[in-house]
Task: structure prediction
Amino acid sequence: MSENSRFKKLLEPGFIGKVRTRNRIVKNGTGLGLQEPDHGFITERQRAFYDVLAQGGAGLISMSSLNIDFPLSSVGSRGYRIDDEKYLPGL
Result:
């Protein structure tokens, strides 16, 4: 098998149920360490990071450290928050 054909499937569209991704490259939700403590909002630096990932061609990008019911579901003082609509515009 040649090197070019070895990863051919990786660049083909993938599917998660009926949702089609442009390829099968996935960026998992590992912590970036870019959050501001006790802030909850996504920062411009974080947004720029995810923009670069999307422009670079990742088919699926998942974010890390989401607080969905703060403080009950808190992942510490450095997570993104989505427990109030005020946090959604940045996302």
The longest strand covers residues 14-16. The mean pLDDT is 84.
